[in-house]
Design brief:
52% helix; 5 helices; 3 strands; 17% strand
Length: 88
């Protein structure tokens, strides 16, 4: 999803950076994602992507899944009640 491609989630709740990241995570729920890849795909800065990722990890939306080389990968925490609601 490029910045110009806003999905239904962002159309409904607003196209903030946080909502764009959340929508991207929901669309790719089966994948382990690196923060740099999220930033590149959405056209946002890496520092902002790290900030949002940390915020979502603190809220329980994301969990660390594995490390590949020096890259930490994250995945959607499907056990979180709010994530379950978002997935519906």
């Amino acid at each position: 999803m490029k910045k110009s491609e806003i999905g239904a989630f962002c159309e409904t709740y607003g196209a903030t950076i946080e909502n764009q990241v959340l929508e991207y995570l929901l669309e790719n729920q089966g994948l382990d994602l690196a923060v740099g890849d999220i930033a590149k795909e959405l056209g946002i800065s890496r520092p902002k992507a790290y900030e949002v990722t940390e915020e979502f990890e603190n809220k329980g939306y994301l969990v660390k899944s594995r490390v590949v080389g020096k890259t930490q990968l994250y995945k959607l925490n499907k056990t979180n009640i709010r994530v379950k609601i978002f997935l519906r």
